[in-house]
Automatic annotation (TrEMBL), chains A, B, C:
Organism: Ignicoccus pacificus DSM 13166
One GO-annotated biological process of the protein: response to metal ion
Gene Ontology molecular function, alphabetical: copper ion binding
Domain of life: Archaea
Similarity section: Belongs to the CutA family.
Species classification: Archaea, Thermoproteota, Thermoprotei, Desulfurococcales, Desulfurococcaceae
Record-given protein name: Divalent ion tolerance protein CutA
Listed Pfam families: CutA1 (PF03091)
Amino acid sequence: MLYVIFSTFPDEESAEKVAKEAIAKRLAACIWIVPGIKSYYIWKNEMQEDKEVLLVAKVPEEKVDELTEFVRKNHPYEVPEIIGVKADRVLPEYLKWAKEVCQGEG
Amino acid sequence: MLYVIFSTFPDEESAEKVAKEAIAKRLAACIWIVPGIKSYYIWKNEMQEDKEVLLVAKVPEEKVDELTEFVRKNHPYEVPEIIGVKADRVLPEYLKWAKEVCQGEG
Amino acid sequence: MLYVIFSTFPDEESAEKVAKEAIAKRLAACIWIVPGIKSYYIWKNEMQEDKEVLLVAKVPEEKVDELTEFVRKNHPYEVPEIIGVKADRVLPEYLKWAKEVCQGEG
């Protein structure tokens, strides 16, 4: 099984730093960075409108906890948004590659 | 549990209006707007290619029906695309914050 | 039930070609193309940083295998990323439309 983990960052620099380190540590098979997101939410009773960048990590299930903890520890926010969605239909060859690369092969 | 709700809009203005109102009504904890999407679909037997904007709402499960109904009622399209995906791995601190903010706290 | 299928492409041209053909063959109800993605992954032990385009197909469950096979056969990569996530909360009118359009109606 594969998980798709979403987390937003304040800028591309902080997102890319975490992305590259997570990949180097083999905590995710592949990570996308999607720039130009606008985020709306309430913080201390006031509407916030922030420019953000979205990090999307594709992670074998066995690495989800480790990847989540790594992002949390290295994230600029105190309470970062880290949400995981199960991908239960994955091209078998891609899933095989993803698992191998996260075990240090490839 | 948290849900990620996707809905596309014809432009940033209509998407932002719905996003801000949904957040103000505490129907979603956080909403992203992703600009610059291209959509392809068939309508009355003809290929359509539209420029659209993607709204992505992070919603505690107990608010999904209310948020879906709100988006439907305030959407410029007759049959809007409103699709929800379950996020079953969410950072606990973030999930706690999302639930509280949708109950009017924070 | 509806599935959301993600696949990244090297450029908009190859993504749009596959998107339009999949829609014309009624293998998906609607397809988004999201430009300007950056992808990080390891290939032959080296960190890769590619500019990519994300294709997102909304597919009735009964068409998921056919759509996946079509994307795999027409994709420029040898091992393409094709991952599917279940959308279990879909606006009923939209789901009805999606099923009909994939059966050649509408």
